[in-house]
Amino acid sequence: MKSIYILAIETSCDETSVAIIKNGHKCIALTVLSQMDVHASFGGVVPEIASRLHTENITMVLAATLKKAHMKLTDIDAFAVTNAPGLIGSLLVGLECAKTLAFIYNKPLITVNHLAGHIYANNLVNKMVFPLLALIVSGGHTELTIMEDDYKFRELGKTLDDAIGESYDKVARILDMPYPGGPNVERSAFKGHPTYKLSVPMKDNGYNFSFSGLKSNIINLVHNEHQRGNEINKNDLACSFQTTAVAEILNKVELALKNNPEIKHMLIAGGVSANKYLRRQLKKLCRKYKVKLSLPKFIYCTDNAAMIGAAAYPLYLKKAFSDFSVSVKSNESLV
Ligand code: KG4
Ligand code: ZN
Q1: Whose CA is nearest to atom 5 of ligand 1?
Q2: Residues 136, 5, 133: CA angle, nearest 5 degrees
Q3: Rounded distance, CA 123 to CA 68, Å?
Q4: Of 5, 25, 84, 248, which cross-links 332 as Cys (Cβ 3.0–4.6 Å)?
């Protein structure tokens, strides 16, 4: 059977990325140009700057990826692009680029949901086996979903307020650590102990998450200690936060595994899936329930176009193509 090469583009936030994926699971070439350093000085992503930088860089990133793959645009079978959810101006840069290429080379255009991309990043490591439990933990989303088959999602629960990555970033800001906070809080937590008693986010029996109470708890704690003239042990507070936040996630995952014994596979997706403490705890839990856990490679955890190419492949097989009237959406759920 002829191999299918998909050229994928991801520009939903602050990474300009292009990849070429063969048959949905083999990454031939990937380029990720991060704007993180520029946004770090503002303490977070500035949408206007993000879209301007995507516009400046997309052609260069595209050329670099083709060069790495030793391929030409005429070798490509389809053009895939993230069109939701994300920053409107940023998404538009990627979408217009993909539309132009699909039009010029007369090949299908495939639009991909960014969260589906994070999930399908797992296909670049191990083939996804259904039914599976997917835990999405990113800067914008925290979600537990059962996947019965390709693109058949049954949402169990999601965050009612902040996403887990957002909480990491906010806690980092409270502790004077640079953006993006996740990796810095993780490093700091590694050196500390969970000595601070923080409130447990959700004490119910449902699948929804909540992280804003935990954040407020930390803000108040830091404020009160400062007022008393006490020093905060940042490593211990980072560790206490991480232990509590991950425990919240683990509780819901355990509930899902208990209530759905037919699930034998689980995967994690999104930027926070790079967190080693979360990975370790999930491995233990999955071992307990005899569930196979798939962990994406670190390079495929945060935003990248390889995951978009992997997610586009089942859509290519189903001929689920988009026409040129398709647009971008700042919000779009998986179901
Ligand atoms: O998936 P992603 O790259 O972007 C979104 O789609 O949102 O996720 C970015 C988020 C940021 O909040 C970042 O702080 C967090 O993932 N993150 C981490 C780690 N690496 C990235 N959080 C905790 N531990 C990490 N190692
Ligand atoms: Zn993402």
Answers
A1: 139
A2: 20
A3: 22
A4: 84
Q: In angstroms, rounded to a whole number, what is the distance separating the alpha carbons of residues 124 and 28?
A: 11
272 CA to middle of ligand 1, Å? 4
What are the residue ranges in the chain where pLDDT is below 70?
A: 202-203
For the chain, the straight-line distance linking the first and the last C-alpha, in angstroms and rounded, comes to 32
Identity of the residue numbered 278: L
- pLDDT at site 305: 98
Q: Which pLDDT does position 287 carry in this prediction?
A: 97
Among the bound ligands, name the one nearest to the CA of residue 190: 1
Q: Which residues of 57-141 form beta strands (DSSP E)?
A: 78-84, 109-113, 132-137
Structure-token match 């819901």, residue found: 252
CA distance readout (Å), 187 to 181, 183, 192: 10, 6, 9
Rounded to the nearest angstrom, the distance between the alpha carbon of 133 and the centre of ligand 2 is 18
Q: In the structure, which protein residues have their CB atom closer than 6 angstroms to any atom of ligand 1?
A: 13, 118, 138-140, 165-166, 168-169, 180-183, 186, 270-272, 274-275, 302-303
